[in-house]
Amino acid sequence: MKIRPVACYAALSCLAVCSPVSPAGAALRYVAIPLDAALPYASFAHGINATGDVAGEFWDWDAGGVAFRNVGGVMQVLGTMADGSSGEGIDDEGQVAVESWVTGRALLWSGDSMRDLGTLGGGFTRASSVSAGQVTGYSRTSSGAMRAFRYANGAMLDLGTLGGTTTTPGGIDSWGIGINQAGDVTGTSLLPDGSYRAFIYSRGAMRSLGTLDGAGDSNGAAINAIGQVTGNASTKGGLSHAFLYTNGTMLDLGTLGGRSSGGYAINARGDVTGSSDVAFNVFRAFLYADGSMYDLNSIVVSGLEGFALFEASGINDQRQIAATGCNGHLCRAFRLDPVPESPNVVVEYYYAGFDHYFMTANPEEIAMLDNRVFAGWVRTGQTFNVYVDSPIGTGATCRFFSAAFGTKSSHFYTSDVDECAAVKGNPAWQFEGIVFNIAVPDQHGACPPNTQPVYRLYNNGQGAAPNHRFTTSLATRAKMVETGWVPEGAGPIGVGMCAPQ
Questions:
Q1: Using 50, 70 and 90 to split pLDDT, how confident is the model at 313?
Q2: I need a surface site. Which of 37, 79, 274, 446 has the fewest CB within 10 A?
Q3: Calpha distance 414→434 (Å, rounded)
Q4: Confidence (pTM)
């Protein structure tokens, strides 16, 4: 979606409630879809892309393993058991990062062929994940060191270390484990004192993310579009816990009641999936969302058929999850799809003193506005539907607040992932949270089936403070344009969102 990038980072006028908001609580529930019901082998899921395609491996305890990808519900095996391979990640184009155990090489499945990514000068390479055709992992250099790499545009780049160099033969100096579409990499690197630290490699430099409580080691496993990272880190008590690194701080996510946990994947919302023990040598897959850790087995309403999920290795922005469960000695890859809740309603308000519009789906805000807690705000009569959960095909809507316009300070809403990330990088704007979910148009402004366009308009700075309005009415849109408002969004008439009908 192409949207005006600078002047319009404002919107709906200050409500006088400037504290962070969140959507109304929605019960998280999932349906489990087995990905290999017709096949006799064990299977393990390792990654998921934006459309719910999954990569992983089939495994035969006698013959070995082979990488697979499941695209549009169709299983495709990427080689033979003799290849000894695993699909470690899948990007939005369906390309799969493949690790070959037999050859000791990192591969990329693209189209209908497998490509060897080469090495950093030695004879060994391991692939960990892929995004937008870029792969990360680690490789042996000509001097014998094992270093993190990023493969892009046909070339492999040595990402260096945080200053440490192992003296152990075959030891790892640094390891790239997760990568985002911008090519930022997270992983773990050796320090001069012999400990390991989670890192982010971005814009040509590697920086440490620290540890939990300043203790022990840490490892980065996945990084999202805005630079949030998950992984695992030591605690002062000598345990290892999953973490969420955001805004320069490493947050301990805790466990499901046991002693240890690890974060494996993260989406644009900051949701984390991984694995946690619940008893000695008993592990369960978890989802960390909205400040709470859930045992995924407890919120899957159908489809597991006696399998217990022990790890969740991927999650996309629609909250679809790639997970693996076992039933005795048989393990199976699953995709978990969220169960949609009923639509919620966005209500629009108008403040005549500023000629500003404001919208909210938050029941507490709606109640305060309707009860005149904030004088001057009145309903316009316009509403549209949204979701408080994340049905497949919807995107998260970010809400921001800025006090930069004095008494006319503004809120701003966007459902565009790139625009949300850009505004988060602007210090003048405070990110208040994800306030609802809604479908987004394609680049031509076309909305998915069973949704209607929500037109986005900008007041072009009238009244010395920016403001946006969102409407499903073409007549309202036309009146706003006549008074100098500027259409924004996708397509020729500016579609900002697509509301469920």
A1: very high
A2: 37
A3: 10
A4: 0.71
